[in-house]
Amino acid sequence: MMQPKSRVKIVSEETLSNGWTRLTSYLLDYIDRRGATQRLKREVYHRTQAACILLYDPKRDLVVLVRQFRLPVHLHGDPAWTIEVPAGLLDDDHPEAAIRREAMEETGYHLRDARFLFKAYSSPGSVTEVVHFFAALIDTADRVAEGGGLDEEHEDIEVLEIPLDEAARMIETGEIFDAKTIMLLQWALLNRGRLQ
């Protein structure tokens, strides 16, 4: 069987935009499963890797989430202040170091342990971003700062403590619609018995 990389040849690439995110147009030759060569044109957003984390307090059976403004959601006409798990770009850090930093900045929680769960591409058809998913057990003693984000980055983050079952209902009611948050909440519901 042919190796996957040998089935793709980049014919040309052109940078269309190079701002906060780089957008590139590619022309490629792709050998399909029948052995025929297809010429394809694709556009790809090159995004930095990211990490996210579910903060779960087993004593109170609640999760710590954040609410913040998201321009793409606003432009789409949905409620722009979205409820999410803490997350952020790696900024050249190891995923665990990055998510420890982001959890402290956004929520004020110091993490004793951060357990790596899995990684996933957020939108593999057009975006290079890989998200590393973590979970951590926390309690009230672990909140050592206010959180809320960094002033110099103009972050305006509200910290929320929500019972796990209520957070699950918020998915069904449409109050939580962020994909990474839904994935981690579903993981927590499936693994609640092991989260002690």
Task: Report on this structure.
The structure is a single chain. This protein has 196 residues and is of the alpha+beta class. It folds into two domains: 4-46, no CATH class; 50-194, Nucleoside Triphosphate Pyrophosphohydrolase (Alpha-Beta Complex). The chain contains four helices and ten strands. Strands 4, 5, 6, 7, 8, 9 and 10 form a seven-stranded mixed beta sheet that branches. The chain has a three-stranded antiparallel beta sheet with strand order 1-2-3, with no helix packed on it. A hairpin with a 3-residue loop joins strand 1 (8-18) and strand 2 (22-31). Helix 3 (164-172) crosses helix 4. The longest helix is centred in the middle third of the chain and has 13 residues, at 95-107. It starts with 7 loop residues before the first strand and ends in a 5-residue tail after the last helix.
Considering the chains and any ligands shown, give keywords for the structure.
alpha+beta; Nucleoside Triphosphate Pyrophosphohydrolase; 2 domains; three-stranded antiparallel beta sheet; elongated
